[in-house]
Design brief:
The protein contains 17 helices and no strands. By secondary structure, the chain is mainly alpha-helical. Helix 3 runs antiparallel to helix 4 and helix 7 packs across helix 9. Keywords: Nucleus, Transport.
């Protein structure tokens, strides 16, 4: 913590904001979309060399944000200044469609930083002279960061969909197995960061339920399209300038619950194998060794094979432990955001086709404009977004939510809390949110 404060006082982040090298991001190679299949080369590509410069700066920003609790606003202000100074690069990373380990590592770091620094309340901490015009420009930058982060949920919100992008060949060996683990961890980290960001935006900008800032429209079409009889794995990606529907939250909630049990079983099996390495079949020992040492496994002794197998199992156990923690966090934040949105839409939202719609719409638009930095986007028709909600939209939301948030999903969530969350500090948090959501869906609107 003391080191982070010294770095803040010395103005390291301010100096990084002035560095022009971060604006020189090379164009992505279209042949590298599935970059892990490219043969390794001795000389790094321009993108790899650029990342050797960018990633340490992002890690430094992340460390300062997480270490300087006493001066968090000052740290967040300096980091936000860094993001805005290099906004073209930041937006290019957020828009990048590459699914290589390097690109996902960039996104994981960047979304973690934005979730803590890209908040409207941080603008007052910027070390710049702010007039009304420049304030709108800064709000515009934050609005774009927010929209693009929300857009990432459509890409990374379902792990079964993204498995298409990872490997079409399951029989990967050596370094590719390690890359596969890194990619899976990075994708879950990105989802966790975006959900943390959504939670922070709602808590900071929504002092009451009646004046909630809704980040998602009252549409569950995403989860209906993807969960229907014909599971549409090619569900359209929502453009970043449009707010996604609440369905992506329920879809992410379901996928995270499924992923949790998959990781939990894998973690338990790996622990059992680690405790009984000597009893494992020779073929399984060889497979574990090949993920650490792709060539020459047959030439080493049995004792050395056991050492390599243990090393792989320990790495796998640690990887699954991180994934379990991320899934648990994603589930908790998804439930929180779903609850807050349902609370607003089902209890406090005045439909545009009601008798009081004219006055309610004006009041709501005014209050939202004060709170929501999305409204500063000049190319967005804000009034056609969240404020135009009809009675039919609300009735449809309630009907779809009752079906999507069914008994089987609720049981899964409560089982997860019993298996995992009971040993953590937030025991009964999931149970309380499930109970509140269930109560909201039983309410009949008059």
């Amino acid at each position: 913590q003391q080191g982070a404060l010294e770095l803040l006082r010395s103005g390291v982040i301010v100096r990084l904001a002035q560095c022009q090298v971060y604006d020189m991001r090379p164009e992505m190679d279209p042949q590298g979309m599935f970059g892990m299949r490219d043969p390794p080369v001795f000389i790094p590509s321009p993108v790899d060399r650029y990342r050797q410069i960018l990633l340490p700066a992002l890690r430094l920003c992340q460390v300062i944000l997480t270490s300087s609790m006493a001066q968090h606003l000052q740290a967040a202000g300096q980091v936000l200044q860094f993001l805005i100074s290099h906004s073209d690069t930041i937006q290019a990373i957020l828009r990048c469609q590459d699914v290589s380990a390097g690109s996902l590592q960039e996104l994981a770091l960047l979304t973690g930083i934005i979730s803590k620094a890209g908040l409207p309340g941080i603008l007052s901490e910027l070390d710049v002279d702010v007039n009304e015009g420049s304030l709108m420009e800064l709000q515009g930058h934050i609005g774009r960061f927010q929209r693009q982060c929300l857009g990432l949920l459509s890409r990374f919100g379902g792990s079964d969909r993204l498995r298409q992008f990872k490997f079409q060949d399951d029989n990967v060996e050596g370094d590719k197995v390690s890359k596969k683990d890194e990619i899976e961890l990075a994708m879950q980290q990105i989802c966790a960061n975006v959900m943390e960001y959504c939670q922070s935006l709602m808590l900071q900008s929504s002092p009451t339920f009646q004046h909630a800032v809704c980040l998602f429209t009252p549409s569950l079409s995403e989860t209906i399209n993807r969960d229907g009889p014909r599971q549409d794995t090619q569900a359209p990606v929502v453009p970043y300038w449009r707010l996604p529907g609440l369905g992506i939250i329920i879809y992410l909630l379901k996928q995270s619950a499924n992923d949790f049990f998959s990781y939990y079983d894998s973690h338990r099996r790996s622990v059992n194998k680690l405790q009984n390495v000597e009893q494992l079949p020779p073929d399984e020992i060889k497979e574990l060794c090949q993920s650490v040492m792709p060539a020459g496994v047959d030439k080493i002794s049995t004792a050395q094979k056991y050492v390599l197998a243990r090393r792989r199992l320990v790495k796998l156990i640690n990887n699954r432990a991180k994934l379990l923690s991320l899934c648990s966090f994603i589930i908790e934040t998804c439930l929180f955001i779903l609850w807050r949105h349902l609370e607003y839409y089902l209890l406090h939202c005045t439909p545009t086709d009601s008798q009081d719609s004219l006055f309610a719409s004006r009041a709501l638009f005014k209050s939202r404009r004060l709170q929501d930095s999305f409204a500063s986007e000049t190319n967005l028709d804000f009034r056609s977004g969240l404020t135009v909600v009809s009675q039919h939209d609300i009735d449809q939301l309630q009907a779809d939510a009752i079906n999507a948030f069914g008994e089987s999903l609720q049981k899964k969530l409560l089982d997860i809390e019993g298996l995992y969350s009971k040993v953590r500090s937030r025991y009964s948090f999931i149970q309380a949110l499930v109970r509140r959501i269930r109560g909201l869906l039983r309410i009949s609107r008059n």
